[in-house]
Amino acid sequence: MKRLIALITFCLILAQPAAAQDGGDRAVDDVRGSMDFVQNLSKETIAVWSDSKLSEVERYNAFRAIFEEATDIELLAQGMLGVHYRTITPEQRQIYMQAMGDYIISEFDKRMEQIGFKALEVIGTKPASGKQGHLYVKTEVKREAGEPILADWRVRKKNGEFQIVNLEFEGINLLITNRDLFSSKVKNDGFDGLVAWLRSQNQAPEGSAR
Fold first, then answer.
1. Residue ranges making up the domain that contains 108
2. 52 falls within a domain
3. 11 falls within a domain
4. Is 17 within a domain?
5. Are 123 and 139 in contact, with CB atoms under 8 Å apart?
6. Domain count, the chain
7. Do the beta carbons of residue 77 and residue 101 sit within 8 Å?
8. Residue 47 to residue 63: CA distance in whole angstroms
9. Within 13 Å of residue 60, how many CA atoms lie on the same side as its CB?
10. pTM for the complete prediction?
11. End-to-end alpha-carbon separation of the chain, Å?
């Protein structure tokens, strides 16, 4: 009987999910990895922006390459279009995704330049809501002039790779803010009107990667 009880106990232990530890395949289980990911992303971006040898086109292309690898643009694009994404045709989705890729990258590049991005300091983390295991990496964005800006980067980890899936600047949620804006555009101007507006917002220099 004692052996049977011991065997059952052993089997129950094996059946329990492994305790969350740093290095797990969710961002919330790999706090150190998530923080290092955001910090390294900042260093790469600063290195590109501060390289005086790069032309405007080269700087933009280098930033785009970093951003595309570090961000789940498709997930952001779908989230920003909200319920409308399910109602458009496959051809419209392709057109929208192309326009959104250019828009999101141009928007990030423009905003960072406008605020005078100088450096970024990780100041903490916070588990994100939901069951995806995402983690907010809380940072202070140091500026060329003015007080630092608080920015929370929503990070996911999938198949061992980290990616940015949302951003909050001073409490303003990038995904939700754009979802409201896009919904208004679709309501007033239709889907084609939204795409035309997205393209008009792209400020990539002439000759940059598309």
1. 23-201
2. yes
3. no
4. no
5. yes
6. 1
7. yes
8. 10
9. 19
10. 0.80
11. 70
